[in-house]
Amino acid sequence: MEQRANNISRLEGGQFDVLIVGGGINGAVSAAVLQGRGLNVAVVDRGDWAGFTSSSSSNLAWGGFKYLENYELNLVRKLSTSRNRLLKAYPSNITELGFLAALDHSSPFPPWLAALGSSAYWAIGNFQTQRPQILGPEEMKAEEPVINIDNVRGGIEYYDAYLRDNDSRFVFNFIRSALESGASAANYVELSSAEREGGLWRARLRDLEDGHDFELTARVIVNAAGPFADGLNDIWGTKTEHRIVYSKGIHLVVPQLTASERVLAFFDDTQRLFYVIPMGRRSVIGTTDTRVDTPFTEVTEEDRQFLLRQINARLDLDQPLTNDDIISERCGVRPLVVKNDGDDREDTDWTTLSRKHEIEVDDHHRVITIFGGKLTDCLNVGEEVAEAAEELGLLLHPDDGHWYGEPPEEVRQDFMRQAKRMKLDDLRHKKGVEPLSERLWRRYGRRAFGMLDEIREDARMGEDIMHSADYLRVELHHAARSEMITKLEDFMLRRSKIDLVVRTDKIRTADGLSEVAEILFGDHADEKLAEYLATGEKVDQPS
Ligand SMILES: Cc1cc2nc3c(=O)[nH]c(=O)nc-3n(C[C@H](O)[C@H](O)[C@H](O)COP(=O)(O)OP(=O)(O)OC[C@H]3O[C@@H](n4cnc5c(N)ncnc54)[C@H](O)[C@@H]3O)c2cc1C
After folding, report:
1. Which of 69, 163, 227, 455 has its CB 3.0 to 4.6 Å from that of 295, i.e. a possible disulfide?
2. Average of per-residue pLDDT across 2-19
């Protein structure tokens, strides 16, 4: 709470080089690169960081194998290169994993053609992942007994990558990087209006927590409002060559369907790919791809039944999955970029619209707009926004690459040595669960050193705070100080993924929940807890 209040005081009346509107992946990465390269940056979001689209993804960093279907070789090349860069820069957070795709008689491709495609995909990705392979139905069954091979002709296994923690935590790391380099940032702050005055932008903002309005000035605005980018440009009259259309996608989180850490891929009855994606001790089924006219969407009973029907038909389960197995749900719209003069007619197949991004610079208004983009492509988006800022005359320090990535391997080894000396993993060892040292390093990097000190000083800091939540007391104290948690939901759903992987009734009755609120909000704990419990039913939970 204090961290946010300090940032709001810096924003109020402040003079900035750049104001970034939107704290999803595109706004977060822009903040990290521009502040990291020496500009004075303000970044705001009217919700929580990654509170909109960037917390509804499949958590994959991938080259887009399926885009080869539309012959988008350039896009696949770009995304594969981005995936490779992410794998290198985030060795603990982004992990390569297999995609085992089962092909049945109604699939659009026979296994041999899919195998050819996967080899091309591997080559386009510069052979940086494991080599793909073709499998017969029996081999698939041996690898993944859960797959129903009655109709399966064969399959392929190719490799991509996924974010081990949530998309939203990945996004927050860029906000934190910007904050640590000196940016002023606040969630739950909305840009209400902005106008040019004396060669500068004068922006009016509202703190949505207490309703007070304030102003700041900036030389350039970065419009990173994702699905809302067009509406924002309308406010100040920026005309662009592109605009956004929406494709809705849903995910269902269910108990773990396979213990192996790989993605299972299937074609649904409409011949679109959908997946079973690992999420710790859970599995995530998704996603759908439906044209919608509004960014505000929710999972409908029809969506739910569609996905459950598809997955039940393709797996050998003791009992088919039903609504009762759904632990939580996610729903969002992909902001897809189209030319202003067409290609989104009623009869356009939505799935064939490109997933590429576009960055447009309005020299006259001094606005940079980011259209589309994927989590996977975030480093490219950051670099292109930096180029656009230079185009508008802002002076950036040379790019030394320090605005992204994990600390070097020797720092990690030093951390692991210290953790070993204090027997951290022995103390908290649970069978089948990731060692604590690795978990802390992945989540906090260099900041995890301080946590070791705190646990050494007070053993209670090393205790689990909520049963099955995989969070230590020390992590909560750290989050309270430096993860800008404004509502309890910010922690439960986005900095952690507790709301995604634990059933609502278990969370509500969990012993540690009040202590979580106390650590995060001090004197305001009761009020914040009541607010969370009142909205909890709505948050990503099936009704
Ligand atoms: C179902 C689904 C699955 C996906 N899977 C993947 C995947 O596996 N891998 C991948 O790479 N990509 C994936 N994507 C794509 C990716 O998630 C999105 O392209 C990306 O998150 C978009 O980020 P963004 O920053 O542009 O938008 P957002 O995350 O929506 O951020 C825009 C922000 O702007 C804020 N905002 C808007 N107006 C204002 C205002 N006036 N004042 C202040 N703030 C404002 C909003 O609150 C919002 O938080 C998926 C998308 C979906 C929907």
Report:
1. 227
2. 97
